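comment on this one:
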Amino acid sequence: MIRTLYAAFENLNIDERYSMRYNLIVLVEALATVCLHVAIELYGLRPRSYA
């Protein structure tokens, strides 16, 4: 399965690769936001920094 995914990734052009990279970054940012909300709502914790 990994080989198939890697082969499919190799066939993408540069615009499609950067598009996937951007979407991955957006996904990670969204997950971080969810984690912050859970920490604040359930545990009353506040982050020291958002950086």
